[in-house]
Amino acid sequence: MAARGRVDWGKWAVSGPPLAYLLFFFAIPTLIMLAASFRTPGDFGGLAPLVGADGRLDLNLESYARLAESTVYLEVFLKSVAYALVTTIACLLLAYPLATLIAQSPRKYRDLLLLLVILPFWSNFLIRIYAWMIILGPNAALARGVNAVLALFGAEPVPLLFSAFAVLVCLVYVHLPFMVLPLYANLEKHDRALLDAAQDLGASGWQRFWRITFPLSLPGVYAGAALVFIPALGIFAIPDILGGPNDSLIGNLIKQQFLESRDWPFGSVLSIVLTAAALGLAGLAAWVGRRGGRGSSRA
Under DSSP, is residue 286 helix (H, G, I), strand (E, B) or coil? Predict the structure, then answer.
């Protein structure tokens, strides 16, 4: 065991290079984006020259002022947060029983179940999204079945494709493995002797779950929530392909600024706001996790 206060150089030798790689290639694009947010859009896209014809630096706050002038961008951002939050909650509700089932399965079946969870990663991301166009299409069995049930109650048929429903279903489908894997890694380590002791003391099944299993699984819940919420917040491919005209999220807005409007400074401002929000929410989740961990340890 390393002496207290002594630097574990072996640990840093293993984890240091990938950590430095991640920080380096996160910091540099972020700094480039930050610098671009103070520039002026070029006449034909890109950025105008940094030094103007009069020899002065062309730096301004016009893109930030544009963001502050309208509430449209705030509404799109809040809608993106709502979509990401619903996706995270749905993934948690679906992943928890599945991760529990895998963790409690005999070892000979456990690897097979884990393989089934990661199997979607073997196919292309866009192909999986386009597959949902077929599943949710107006002539598909799912849409026909839903509208047949609605017709029994006298309701008008509803389109499943190109709707908020289609976006949320695909968001949950794409991100579900990112919730299952950290939850499984946590649940698999639980000591079943604690549950047996609680049962011997008269605790019901719900009490054993709520007082023992769930508090111990909170680190896995926090890790899974972060892995689902942050990517879902900035995603643009799914709303682009499966969403309707009113389902554009903040990721679609950023893509539009860079590729269609060719306004790189304003796209950079939106990207910085999104990055800051994601980092802030991740920090908040970590803080809540530490407080929850201290509370559980005191209990």
Answer: helix
- Cα distances (Å, whole numbers) of residue 105 to 108, 109, 110, 249, 268: 8, 6, 6, 39, 48
CA dist 39 and 265 (Å) reads 6
Q: Are 275 and 234 in contact (CB under 8 A)?
A: no
Please work out, in degrees rounded to the nearest 5, the angle formed at the alpha carbon of residue 167 by the alpha carbons of 284 and 271. 45
The Cα angle at residue 222 between residues 219 and 228, in degrees rounded to 5? 140
Q: Give the H/E segment covering residue 172.
A: helix 164-187
Q: What is the pTM of this model?
A: 0.85
Contact of 250 with 76, CB cutoff 8 Å: yes
pLDDT tens per residue across span 112-139? 999 999 988 888 889 999 999 999 988 8
Whole-number Cα distances in Å, 111 to 118, 120, 183: 11, 15, 15
Q: Are 268 and 36 in contact (CB under 8 A)?
A: yes
